[in-house]
Amino acid sequence: NTKACLFDLDGVIVDTAVYHFQAWRRLANELGFDFTEHQNEQLKGISRMESLELILGWGNVTLSEEEKVAWATRKNAWYLDLVMQMTPDEVLKGVPEFLTSLRADNIKIALGSASKNSKLILERINMLDYFDAIIDGNNITKGKPDPQVFLMGAEATDCKPEECVVFEDAVAGVQAGKAGGMKVIGVGSADILNEADFVIAGFEEMTIDRLF
Ligand code: B16
Ligand code: MG
Which residues are involved in binding substrate (predicted)? Predict the structure, then answer.
């Protein structure tokens, strides 16, 4: 029986990936190379420092640990400039309606995101009040596909893993939910998210009865 829904942020609630891409691309350009939107797909659900490692690999750039931290800090400042311009109309279609229906049925709502900026983003898009618990990059020691972020979400909502349903747009996130023993609904393409229990293209097609 489902008692809590655990939501990823980027790609599920809102599309911050476009802003991550802009900021990471600026970093790459300043280091003398570029990368594509296709490559950017690989960064979804992955932590900031893991993303940086992948990008530096694409550009064959070697940096010291100190330089890596400095570039990651710069990228985050550029990213936050873009986040500060976000507005509530960027919330993905059908999300507020679905979360409202969960609240009406007393189903708990938690965030399970790799981002360290999740609260700020939820504030900007006016979605913070929907969440009973927020587990994000500030709370976790192991990134997706490790189940830690979702297991902490289950605990924070007083639910067993089998009582939770995870919503994820990234392969690593789907794997994290399954590793935690949860039902996982993929958001995006069924070809890519084939490890999910089922996949929706967006929340317009999601109803409460599909949780059970
Ligand atoms: P930050 P999610 C993830 O969010 C993004 O998909 C990923 O591209 C990003 O690197 C990661 O958050 C960390 O974000 O730099 O803001 O801490 O999909 O787990 O909500
Ligand atoms: Mg995501």
Answer: 8-10, 24, 43-48, 51, 75, 113-117, 144
Confidence of residue 159 (pLDDT cuts 50, 70, 90): very high
Strands 183-187 and 133-135: unpaired
pLDDT mean across residues, the chain: 97
Helical residues (DSSP H) of 31-156, grouped into ranges: 37-40, 48-58, 65-83, 95-104, 118-124, 148-156
CA of 23 to the centre of ligand 1 (A): 13
Tell me if 144 is assigned to a ligand binding site. yes
Whether the Cβ atoms of residue 169 and residue 11 lie closer than 8 Å to each other? yes
Tens digits of per-residue pLDDT, 72-121?
Answer: 999 999 999 999 999 999 999 999 999 999 999 999 999 999 999 999 99
- pLDDT value of position 167: 98
- Distance (Å) from CA 117 to ligand 1 centroid: 8
Determine if residue 89 is labeled as part of a ligand binding site.
no
Q: Catalytic annotation on 10?
A: yes
**Atom of ligand 1 at shortest distance to CA of 169?**
18
